[in-house]
Fold:
Amino acid sequence: MAIDYVQLSQILGVSEKYLWFFALALLWSLIWKIVACWKAARKNNFIWFIILFVVNTLGILEILYIFLFSKINLNEKEIITSKKRKKK
Structure:
């Protein structure tokens, strides 16, 4: 029981000629999601991993994490160390 393009376009409520756009958007989002989740897992950012895995934003949240938030280290030890250095 396979679903053809006509049935899929009826399910999504769009014309057949725009179905390629949804496939492209899905692929785009999936690639960014995989990269961001992989990076969050490697950095042991469990909260970010869950957020990235659950929230679907066409890659926007994933791109922000990869290029912005993953570069920020919120390790408490480093924050304390940097405060001590400033006092000296």
In short: Residues 27-87 form one domain.
